[in-house]
Amino acid sequence: MTPEQKPGFSESDNGIVLNNDEAQRVNMAPAQATPAPQPQTQPQSDNKRKNPAKLIVSLLVIAALGFAISQINFTAIVDNITAIGYEAPADLQKIIDDIELTDDGMRILKATRPELQGADDFNNSCLNDSGEYSVLGCYSSNRVFVYNISEESLDGIRQTTLAHEFLHAVWHRMSQGEREELGKALREIYDNNEAIREHMNNYEDGSNNYNELHSVIGTTVKRDDLPEVLKKHYAKYFKNPSKLVTYYDKYYASYKQASTRIKELEPLIEKRRTTLKEMEEKYTKDNDQLTKDINDHNARARTPNGYSTVEEFNNAYSALVDRKNKMTADYRALNEYLEETNRLIDEYNNNALRMNKFQESINSRVGDKED
Fold first, then answer.
1. Rounded distance, CA 31 to CA 44, Å?
2. What percent of the residues of the chain are helix, what percent strand, and what percent coil, each to the nearest 5?
3. Could you tell me the CA-to-CA distances from 139 to 200, 220, 334 in Å, in that order?
4. Hey, which bits of 182-311 come out as E strands?
């Protein structure tokens, strides 16, 4: 065996091959006793035949490698790279802390590099294709923008808006299969929740806009009212999903109360106006008739033998007094009814002002702008 050779192997025209046992024992002998290598009797093509065991191992290695690659979350890697260097300013960080994101949630949000903006910047960031401005926030080109509303009565609106737009980013990262699975649960809530249906009327193709449904339901529907699949889904991104609804309820309660009261007052005021008109018309007619009858009574009383007896005069006079008293009572009732109607109208107007203030506060087009 030459210094380059190893025990159990020999060289041939077909390369290094494994010797048979006898040849191996011979090769273990001192170099000078080593016989010349014997030519291989196997056909050359047989030497190229693959070992089945090695083939299986190779396939298993490839399969394992493919499985390992499939388990890599490339979206998460991209998110982490995109988020490098991002640090939220203090006011926005407070809002982020309030919605209590999980690690996965925080990764996605940071990748959107969210911004809290004033009216002018927000309008530039959230100008949509139709030329209309978003009202509260937007998710555009993997960025989240939130209108910085400072109205104290709307405390909680920025938290709700941030969570809403964040959920658009989540939806954007979901597979078609995941969307279809959640879509069934989202649709079920839409079909059975009047408030959600009313809310979705604000969006184009609201009943089939599952992207918006995903964000609206995730920020406005109580956890106990969600099916299990949605509970688990939102819990992936929020440590305390129920807290989101409290933010929504907090700012929306005032607006909803005003809106509900206006809807109650509108038909009531309209009905009272109709009744008031009828009361005024009747009072005027009755008063005119009473005035005429009093004048006739006085003229008759001044006419000799106008009344044949004192009793007849007294009866006529008493009847007029009773009618006059009734007219006084009717006038008082009319004024009270008018005052109550005016009070309801004032209440209606005050609630309308609250709603207008709400709309102006959340509408960046009429927000505080730099001169």
1. 28
2. 70, 5, 25
3. 17, 18, 57
4. none
Strands 9-12 and 15-18: antiparallel
Distance between CA atoms of 305 and 85, rounded to whole angstroms? 111
Please report where in the chains the tokens 């260097």 appear, as a residue: 85
d(CA 1, CA 19): 12
Task: Tell me how far apart the alpha carbons of residues 111 and 107 are, in angstroms, rounded to a whole number.
Answer: 6
Q: What is the pLDDT of residues 180-234, one digit of tens each?
A: 999 999 999 999 999 899 888 877 776 678 999 999 999 999 999 999 999 999 9
Band the pLDDT of 128: cuts 50, 70, 90.
Answer: low
Tokens of 147: 């209108």
pLDDT at 79 over 50: yes
**How far, in Å, CA of 17 to CA of 9, rounded?**
6
d(CA 24, CA 153): 93
**What amino acid occupies position 151?**
E
d(CA 298, CA 123): 77
Element (H, E) at 137: strand 137-140
What average pLDDT does this structure show over 328-347? Answer: 96
Amino acid at 146: V
pLDDT score at 183: 94
Domain definitions of the chain by residue range: 88-249, 252-366
The span from the CA of 173 to the CA of 110, in Å, is: 14
Backbone angles phi, psi at 36, to 5 degrees: -65, 145
Left if phi > 0, otherwise alpha if psi is -120 to 50, otherwise beta: which for 85? left
